[in-house]
Specification:
Helix content is 35%, strand content 22%. It is α+β, with helices and mostly antiparallel strands.
Length: 681
């Protein structure tokens, strides 16, 4: 009996020793399987986005910024009554009861997102339910304070904070910063261990993009395009404004546009940045490049005459005619061919130049290839491969049988405006590192020289004739007090669903620059399918004129002395003489290339500045005290950041970068309606 007890005792001691050894092994030696099991049981990994970098215009005005948002998640296993919780949440979130319940009905799940990026008022209401198993994560929600401004260019984000279109997509890695993976700790009962029901992240911000865009000129461009669409009952319109010397994008727009804060609800057609993604037949704006190519190859001089067949020219089995039946030109110079936009004259020039040299000239001006602009989705356009039939050569010479994007055409005219150099257009002026503050600036990128300075000056003189001479097609593009150079375009619209052209459908356009004697801005405007009129001279040229007028006056460029009529008559005789005399044209070209502006006061003060955020009534709805907070000398972004979390409605007035005045004043009693007006100067 005694030996049996001893034996049992030894057995128990041995078993206990084995258990202790196993415990020590598990405690002190690593075990991947058990570690993984522990992590799944007591931790949940959540990926959160860093604060996305801001996008500002050339003057520091906010175009895209990040505001605080709250993302709701649940631990279904510890929610006591999941059906009741789903009913309460569905009312606040605006979702169906079924969709909310489907997310939390599985009691074996330990983590599920209910809804991302909630505003604080909804988050506060849900917190009042005091439902065990619901918690929030503080994240960043993208906000576009100007709503529709520069919409297609800026682009927008997906629900996970990833760039989907525009600059948000093209510079996604730079803007988003680093993602943060947060481990949510749980207690022994599986409940999340989070202080105050919130999980805050401290992660480096994304980088800030400063654009070359002027938001006030951008607003003017968008307004004019929208007006053109409405006035002429058009499908849409596009516009590009470039810095003439560098090809930096000053404004870029498509109309109709959409609200970036509701981007997912807008149609894909409205969201597309047609200035870089869409290629179409340019019509007569291409004649400028045909004549420029012939000029550089020595195939003509501005006063070289061509017989324009009195309005009808047979090419193979086709007859080429002018745009209007009454236009029956005889012998006219190359400069006059451009001024009157003669199809037959341009065909004759193309035949003299030859298909090889013409095609190479168009390629050299940047057509049929990507320019490398820092925007996603850039189209190449179409320049057909050789050989070309005679009728194809004729059609291409006046802008049919070839496809270009708006930014390609604007950039080609910029090469003429700046003295003959084709540059790469760009829209991001600089990128600022959020951690180091280091600034990486974009440098001007010349692609190639396409004209000599003298040839470019001759082309500027001829384009000046288009708008200045009585015979010119571009009279409606004139700007009082300034010399304007440019070319109209009217192209039949290709049938997208078959061969040939759509009956009665046109693309009306104008490309040019101002001031012609010292170009600052290159502007291209195209209106798609205008139904109340269709000639570029009547549809697009007036739009160009208004945009150009705003641009030069906003820039503070002094007009030439005298009225428009006096300015025209001053140059008319010189241009007329130049049409027939090579020496006179070369003299005029040199004068335009080197002319210094006479001292003169601006005719009028620049138009009133566009109100930041277009005076939109922006509200960040949260809690505050009884006095007005001090927002003086803050930027728009800093204001929104400071009032985030306060029950205020802030209205922005003015176009400056800093708050200079507040109504009511800082420190005064907060009005009952919680409204504060801040004036930016």
């Amino acid at each position: 009996m005694k030996s049996r007890i001893v034996f049992i005792f030894i057995g128990i001691i041995g078993l206990w020793s084995l258990l202790m050894m196993r415990a020590a092994y598990l405690q002190f030696l690593p075990n991947d399987r058990l570690n993984s099991l522990q992590n799944r049981q007591f931790q949940t990994k959540v990926t959160l986005q860093a604060r996305r970098g801001a996008i500002v215009d050339r003057n520091g005005r906010d175009l895209a910024m990040s505001a605080t948002a709250y993302s709701l998640y649940a631990d279904p296993k510890i929610i006591d009554n999941r059906k009741a919780a789903a009913k309460k949440l569905s009312k606040v979130l605006g979702q169906s009861y079924e969709s909310v319940y489907a997310k939390i009905k599985d009691g074996n799940k330990r983590f599920v997102w209910i809804q991302r990026m909630l505003e604080q008022d909804k988050a506060d209401e849900i917190k009042k339910f005091d439902i065990r198993g619901l918690s929030f994560v503080e994240e960043w929600r993208r906000v576009y304070p100007n709503e529709t401004l520069l919409a297609q260019t800026l682009g927008f984000l997906g629900i996970e904070g990833q760039g989907l279109e525009g600059l948000e997509l093209g510079y996604d890695q730079s803007l988003r910063g680093n993602q943060k993976k947060v481990m949510v700790k749980r207690d022994a009962r599986g409940r999340p261990l989070i202080n105050d029901g919130l999980m805050f992240i401290e992660n480096p911000d994304g980088n800030e993009l400063r654009l070359t865009v002027d938001s006030e000129l951008q607003y003017a461009l968008e307004s004019e395009l929208a007006n053109a669409v409405q006035t002429f009952d058009a499908d849409h319109a596009v516009g590009v404004v470039l810095d003439a010397k560098t090809s930096a994008v000053v404004a870029l727009a498509s109309a109709p546009t959409f609200d970036l804060n509701k981007a997912q609800k807008a149609s894909a057609d409205f969201r597309r940045n047609k200035t870089v993604t869409d290629a179409f037949e340019p019509g007569s704006t291409l004649k400028t490049l045909v004549i420029a190519s012939a000029l550089r190859e020595g195939a003509l001089q501005p006063n070289t005459k061509f017989f324009c067949e009195n309005g009808a020219f047979r090419v193979g089995d086709k007859v080429i005619k002018e745009a209007e039946a009454h236009e029956k030109f005889g012998d006219i110079t190359a400069a006059e061919i451009l001024a009157v936009s003669s199809n037959i004259g341009t065909t004759k020039i193309a035949f003299k130049l030859g298909q090889d040299k013409l095609r190479q000239g168009l390629l050299d001006f940047g057509l049929g290839q990507k320019l490398g602009v820092d925007l996603p989705g850039e189209a190449r356009g179409i320049v057909q491969s050789l050989p070309w039939k005679p009728i194809s050569l004729s059609n291409i010479s006046f802008g049919h049988g070839i496809a270009t994007t708006p930014i390609q055409m604007a950039n080609a005219y910029a090469a003429i405006a700046n003295g003959g150099v084709l540059n790469t257009p760009y829209i991001v002026q600089s990128v600022r590192d959020s951690e180091t503050g280091e600034l990486t600036e974009t440098k001007v990128k010349p692609i190639r020289r396409v004209l000599t300075p003298e040839q470019a000056a001759q082309m500027r003189a001829m384009l000046l004739g288009v708008t200045t001479l009585k015979i010119g097609s571009g009279a409606n593009a004139r700007v009082d007090g300034f010399l304007v150079a440019g070319k109209t375009g009217t192209a039949q619209k290709v049938n997208p669903n078959g061969r040939g052209y759509l009956k009665g459908a046109y693309v009306s356009s104008f490309a040019g620059f101002i001031p012609a004697n010292d170009p600052k801005f290159v502007i291209y405007v195209a209106v798609d399918s205008p139904r109340k009129s269709y000639y570029g001279a009547k549809v697009a040229a007036p739009v160009f004129s208004r945009i150009a007028s705003y641009a030069v006056r906003k820039e503070g460029i002094a007009p030439l002395p005298g009225t428009l009529a006096e300015t025209n008559s001053k140059n008319l005789n010189s241009i007329k003489t130049a049409m027939g005399q090579k020496a006179a044209l070369e003299k005029l070209a040199r004068e335009i290339a080197t002319e210094s502006k006479e001292p003169a006061k601006p005719e009028a003060k620049a138009e009133p500045a566009i109100v930041t955020a277009q005076e939109l009534d922006k509200a960040a709805e949260v809690k505050t005290g009884e006095t007005v907070p001090n927002l003086m000398k803050l930027t728009t972004r800093e204001v929104l950041r400071q009032v985030s979390g306060q029950n205020l409605k802030v209205k922005f007035v003015g176009s400056g970068s800093l708050v200079s005045e507040m109504i009511p004043a800082a420190g005064s009693t907060l009005p009952e309606d919680k409204n504060i007006t801040v004036i930016l100067k």
